[in-house]
Amino acid sequence: MKKLIVNEKCIGCGACIAIDSEHFDFEDNLSKVISNDNLESDALQNAIASCPMGAIEIIEEESSEN
After folding, report:
1. Domain interval for residue 39
2. Total domain count, the chain
């Protein structure tokens, strides 16, 4: 399953929040993911591309089922 993350490179500039408030908000002056829905949206793709630190990623989350 795919999962949206903001990694440790985030500097809290807020670009992603300004572009895509569906997926991002502030927590402790850094961006955080608030939704993993609609990962194909244009706004999300623009937010990822606009991050000056490259701190936003969509990763493949490993299943914990055996």
Report:
1. 2-60
2. 1
